[in-house]
Design goal:
With 345 residues, this protein is an alpha/beta fold. It has eleven helices and 15 strands. The protein has a domain of 236 residues: Metallo-beta-lactamase, Chain A (4-Layer Sandwich).
Length: 345
């Protein structure tokens, strides 16, 4: 939780019910889909687009989500003459891209994504041997997770393919700074990094709206992890750097996040996110009174009990904070005789 030195403004105190929508701005409709995790929902967006619609993000590939989409098909006549022109996916995570292929097939429309996010979704969808993530077990062992947790990760395997319908083999590429006409308005593509490699956010100055995806969330902070496939990455540095661009947007813009409630107070929230990570980085340095692996930093960053799903994100985030400090010369990293990486101030 980031500090709340100045409260954000929340225009809506509750989300839409399943199968229902709320019009949060003229021609911009909010719908919500359930997720089978501790973070139990995702916000999706329907944009009126002339004689049709544009969908932003899709929900996870589950029968429950398909059934809720079927209600929206009927309520908004998405399969009728005023159909869907395109499905925009902000990034490759299953709750966002999960039903993109199914929606594009059902609605006979195009998929729009940034190139890196589409490539990641494609690669993970066909990666039966889990080559993309590399040896997850060896990676987590090197960062100090005990054998009990490692055996649970081994038993679970890689769940990505079970949560994502086949991703279309053809897509329309979105790029940073591109301006897309939707419903007579111009939407600028802003790229967020760290949470995902090329996450697309959409800003319409005319509508006064930012669709922030997972890059800017109220109340919670997006996961920023080092993953086994890129062990020397600096995702936290990328994330903190990408936040600067949002100070160029109007401070009263209506932010439409992928989780929790829409809000106003973008600049304040960016400051809170930066302060949050500054505080966590300081906590990490204080905890390094002796050489420690990332697994021993988990209680410093996460002061609650974690399930297996949460632990995968948590250990990645602990490594990301350590990597940020190590790559800037503020701490050092060594490998012990048993092969475990340890960090010291």
């Amino acid at each position: 939780m980031a500090p709340d030195s100045a409260p954000l403004a929340f225009p809506y105190d509750a989300p839409p019910d399943g199968g229902e929508t709320i019009e949060v701005a003229p021609g911009i409709h909010w719908l919500r889909m359930p997720l089978p995790f501790a973070l139990d929902h995702i916000n999706l967006w329907l944009l009126e687009d002339g004689d049709g619609w544009t969908i932003v993000d899709c929900g996870i590939a589950r029968d429950e989500t398909r059934e809720l989409w079927a209600r929206h098909f009927a309520a908004k006549a998405l399969k009728g003459p005023r159909g869907v022109k395109r499905v925009i996916v902000t990034h490759f995570h299953p709750d966002h891209v999960g039903l993109a292929g199914w929606l594009c097939a059902e609605l006979d429309c195009e998929l729009w994504m940034t190139q890196t996010e589409w490539l990641m979704a494609q690669a993970l969808s066909i990666d039966e041997q889990n080559h993309i993530h590399g040896s997850r077990i060896d990676f987590y062992r090197a960062h100090g997770l005990d054998e009990e947790w490692l055996s649970q990760f081994a038993d679970r395997g890689e769940p990505y393919r079970t949560r994502v319908a086949p991703v279309p083999s053809v897509f329309r590429r979105m790029q940073a700074g591109e301006r897309i006409a939707i419903g007579g308005r111009e939407w600028e593509v802003l790229i967020g990094r760290g949470h995902a490699p090329e996450h697309a956010c959409l800003f319409s100055r005319e509508a006064g709206v930012l669709i922030s995806g997972d890059i800017v969330l109220p109340k919670i902070t997006p996961n920023v992890s080092v993953w086994p496939s890129q062990p020397e990455a600096d995702p936290l540095g990328e994330y903190l750097g990408c936040l600067e661009q949002f100070f160029d947007l109007p401070p009263d813009v209506l932010v439409l996040p992928s989780h929790r409630l829409p809000f106003r107070g973008l600049h304040q929230r960016i400051r809170q996110l930066k302060e949050h990570h500054d505080d966590r980085l300081a906590d990490v340095i204080r905890a390094l009174d002796r050489p420690r692996p990332a697994a021993e930093i988990l209680p410093v960053l996460f002061r609650r009990k974690l399930d297996l799903h949460q632990l995968g994100f948590a250990i990645g985030e602990a490594i990301a904070h350590l990597a940020y400090l190590e790559q800037r010369g503020r701490i050092r990293r060594e490998r012990r005789a048993d092969g475990v990486l340890v960090y010291a101030a």
